[in-house]
Amino acid sequence: MTRLPWPLYFMNITHLVAERSTCLRRKVGAIAVKDKRILATGYNGAPRNIRDCLEIGSCRRMREGAPPGERHELCRGIHAEQNVIIQAAVHGVSLEKAVVYCTHQPCSICSKMLINCAVEAVYFETAYPDPMAVELFAEAGITLARLDGLPECACPGESTLSMA
């Protein structure tokens, strides 16, 4: 019997976290890990005490036809990566040298935030149309990689992580 490799184990957990999402457009999950210990989790959804799109029954970005990666200001939600950072901060946990696993490649806004947290690496499963995010991680010298062994995606400049 083969044991599940750590990266795949953590990526599977991000999918479970994403199930808490209240976004009608895309369920996204993220977790921060250090020394094989989960530090914080996050999913995309509205801030505390704010009605989410599930409760309202519609998404303004969808109604207005906002393409992926654009018009974030129309969204009631916070990205999963932002919620990982917020949850860590609320509980007094540093993300310095942590590894972040995401169901989707972070956008450039989340990328800048993760870079400022001094994370060691970010691994994702699904591509997101934001080439600036790839450039930012490369310039900062922080690993941004799609997990190897998952379906192919077209992300220029990305590397992959072996699950061995």
Brief synopsis:
The chain has 164 residues and is α/β, with parallel strands linked by helices.
Care to describe what's here?
This protein has 164 residues and is of the alpha/beta class. The chain is built from six helices and six strands. A six-stranded mixed beta sheet has the order 2-1-3-4-5-6. It is globular and about 45 Å long. The two termini are 15 Å apart.
Secondary-structure blueprint:
Layout: H1 6-18, E1 29-34, E2 37-43, H2 53-56, H3 60-63, H4 80-90, E3 99-104, H5 108-116, E4 121-126, H6 131-140, E5 143-147, E6 159-161
Parallel strand pairs: 3-4, 4-5, 5-6
Antiparallel strand pairs: 1-2, 1-3
Helix pairs in contact: 5-6
Please tag this protein with its features.
6 strands; alpha/beta; 31% helix; 20% strand; globular; six-stranded mixed β-sheet; 164 residues
Q: Reading side by side through the largest sheet, how are the strands ordered?
A: 2-1-3-4-5-6
| N-C termini distance | 15 Å
Q: Fraction of residues in helices?
A: 25-40%
Q: What is the SS-derived class?
A: alpha/beta
